[in-house]
Amino acid sequence: MSHEGRQGNVTIRDVARAANVSISTVSHVLSGKRPTSGQTRHRVEAVIERLGYRPNRVAQSLVWRRPFALGLIIPDITNPYFPAFAHGAEDRVRDRGYTLVLGNSEYDPSRELSYLELVRSQQLAGAIYCLGDEMSPIVPELHKAVEEGLSVVLIHSPLANLPTVCADNRQGGRLAAEHLLDLGHRAIGVVSALPLDEGMADREAGFLDALRDAGFAVDRAGVPVTYGNHQIEGGRLAMQELLEHSPSLTAVFVLNDLMALGALEAARSSGRRIPEDVSIVGFDDIPFAALAN
After folding, report:
1. pTM
2. Which position among 56, 66, 189, 224 has the lowest Cβ density within 10 Å, counted as fewest Cβ atoms?
């Protein structure tokens, strides 16, 4: 693609002149601070692309007194569920001219805290957090950071008094149970997870709610539960334990797809056919799950 001017020669004034708008309008399109009409925004964006204009973020940070970077802290970068968040977040922040700084906490509260200190020390514009555990010592620190003016949004698991974007995990768990019940299963177990964040807890609670409504005795005898560590190997070991203690199970709900892959391996290793002998339902719809058949 050709550009009319080199990046270093094109100014915001050139963009405004070519788009037949004011400099402030171009600034609003770049910053997203004020709404502009769709037609005007598209015209300005087209001129920016055609001229090859690239705003000087260092200068803008000084003028607007805010950085153009956001932090995203996820608990497990090896789980495809979480990089999907990063992909979507990066698309959105790039649309607004920001940079995304990624942190991987590995479910370690001390790392969650260190990333928050990094966000503060580098004076990032805000942080998106996916917590590994709502009992983490970072929770009061997040509230404190918000009181100090830091923008914080949680994903995956809700937390009181903090903005959150998450799926309806409880309803998802209920739907999983209803699916297994519709298939005629009555000997059902659960592979849960530790640490059990609120999103995961909601999945398990919704599942058990539906079983309770169907007349199940929701206790360890009626619905046996084992625990994995969110990983494939954790799911394999938890499923192995579940089948050893409850060999008559015909269906298992696994709280995430990564552990469900391990559960599939354990079931097959025990000589069980999927789904003829045991049905397995995961949660998250990661791409690898579609290949596990």
Report:
1. 0.71
2. 56
Are residue 153 and residue 174 in the same domain, yes or no? no
Write out the residue range of the structural domain in which residue 161 sits: 69-165
Same domain? 147 vs 261: no
Q: 73 and 41, same structural domain? A: no
* Farthest-apart Cα atoms in the chain, separation: 74
Indicate if 256 and 148 belong to the same structural domain.
Answer: no
Strand partners, 155: 165
Instruction: Note down pLDDT in tens along the chain; length 293 residues.
Output: 444 444 457 888 888 899 999 888 887 887 766 777 888 888 998 998 888 877 655 444 444 445 678 999 999 998 888 888 899 999 988 888 788 999 999 989 899 999 999 888 877 889 999 987 777 788 889 999 888 888 999 988 777 678 889 889 999 999 999 999 999 999 999 999 998 888 899 999 999 999 999 999 988 888 999 999 999 999 999 999 999 999 999 999 999 999 999 999 999 999 999 999 999 999 999 888 888 76
Amino acid at 198: E
